[in-house]
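Case study 2.
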Amino acid sequence: MPALLKKHPLISFIAALITGLLMWGFWPQPIMVEGIEARYSPMTVSIEEEGQTRVIDRYVIAASVDGVACRQQLKVGDTVKRGQVLLGIAPLQSQILDPRSRAQAQAQIAAAKSALHAAEEQANAASASAQLANKELIRLQPLMEKALISREAFYKARTEVQTATANKRSADFSVEVAKYELEAARTALQYSAAVDSGVPAERVPVRSPIDGKILKVVRECEGPVRTGAPLLEVGDPSALEIEVDVLSADAVKIKPGMKVLFDRWGGEKPLEGLVRIVEPVGFTKVSALGVEEQRVLIISDFVSKAELWRRLGDGYRVEANFIIWQQENVLQIPASSLFRDNGGWAVFIIENDLAVRREVKVGQRNGLVAQILEGINDGDLVINHPSDEVDDAKRVELRLFD
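Prediction:
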């Protein structure tokens, strides 16, 4: 065999090459990993949620009476003064008379006229009776003085005068009542909605309760309104607060007086605020994924100068960061480097191109980074996103990113 190899060196070379390739192919290769150094740097734990601004004192101006609201001339954003008349409410128009109702109204006018004539005739009869009684009393007066008639007869005649006078007054009042009833019957035809009476209608003025701006116009066109129907919303945009709804599990971590930062509101720098109220009542809200969540409203006030957030208005979007915990010098690593090990937390660090398992004690976490209290030191190279292939004492190689 050695003699054969000496006669054919090419075969020897090919055999050695195949052997080397097999050894290289089956030789354990280092695992490509991403390494990040543990460093001391500032760390903040916060709760981030979207919120919106709202006017602190919002006044919904409603109709105080049933009527017809005039056309709205004010627009959203117009400035109003306290006591300024915003619009007026006129009385509702009468109903339109159909042929049957019109015939009934005309018949009521005719009946009222006849009743007036009857009352006038009764008044004439009562007047004649009163005149006759007066004449009889005048005739009996001298006879009474001469004692030619009894006192009872004279008193009876005087009583008849008083009765006749009262009947005359009652008949006169009946005539007045008949005249008013006739006028009421005529009014049903005179003030129909289809007839323009030409008489200006009374209007109830609706005034602004504060100095501010129009926030919402509920009704722009003229039309009938009921008592309590909203017409306008007025408020002062310079007095704003921020409402943010957070999960109830996060709400228990937020306390009044806690610092909050507002980002992505349109300005160059974040705005500062303080939590004023954590509402004690939650509500159910369906998320974008269709999951029902219990949410709680957090009300905050701006602490930054008004000149910085003056461009904000009612209902503007902001992103709130509630500062739960904050420290300037914290040893931290990416939270994605941690994994569970024997009921605790552990990481892989790189030492001499080998992965070494280290148990660590974790402090605060904010979703991106984690505070390390024990287990590693500043400058240790930690494997980020360790795969299932990474294990203790295995060779690793850092992956380079361009």
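The CA atoms of residues 259 and 274 lie 5 Å apart.
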